[in-house]
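Notes from the 1:1 (GR / supervisor)

We went over the backlog. Supervisor wanted to see one worked example end to end before approving the batch request, so GR pasted a single chain during the call. The sequence is below; no edits were made to it. Supervisor asked that the structure be written out right there so they could see what the output format looks like.
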Amino acid sequence: MLKMESVSKAYKHRGQTVTALDNATVEIRRGDFVSVVGPSGSGKSTLLLMLGGMLSPSQGRVLLEDQSVYDMNLNQRARLRREKVGFVFQTFNLVPYLSALENVQIPLFLAKMDEDAQEQRAVALLERVGLSDRLHHKPCELSVGQQQRVALARMLANDPAVILADEPTGNLDPQTSEQIIGFLEEFNQEGRTIVMVTHDPRAAERAKRIVRLQAGAIICEDAAEAACRAA
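Structure output shown during the call:
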């Protein structure tokens, strides 16, 4: 489903070369639920962005369904993301002047779906995440947890096969975090492949598999190993 083959990413910072990812190789099978853990600066978000076609490697290959993502041009990569990948971020990235309903409709509008069908699907998705009574509320009128649920509904709009989640519970209290992880487990049970970056050991434990990074390198990849479980 998703593969990284000997991928490295280096960039210049204040005249020095910084290695964000170092010769990383990992395979994520269809229907897997993988937590990516490790200390701050270990390369977790870099790995996630590369898997999602948003950050090109310095060397190596990234493949999604056997397609080499960075051999595509920008338009092809954008189409691949739109059709196959859903993103969830710690900061939600909701449009502040749009309602919950309108935020969820954005990817449907970009996909040129009929306007009535857009609204019907957006309403159904918001109902699924328990926000049927908040359709016309703007982000500032919603709690932090409700905003993350709007972001989940928007992520589902184009029915992605792959969900990439970057610290999806990072700004949430324990009860709301549990709710969000529960939704991700539901999506995984439906057959979606999930890769989740997290600092939260309780969230990491809910995945089927854990990949641990340190200084840009994958140091273990096994749900059973204590080193992988330590976050």
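Supervisor's comment: The two ends are 26 Å apart (CA to CA).
Batch request approved.
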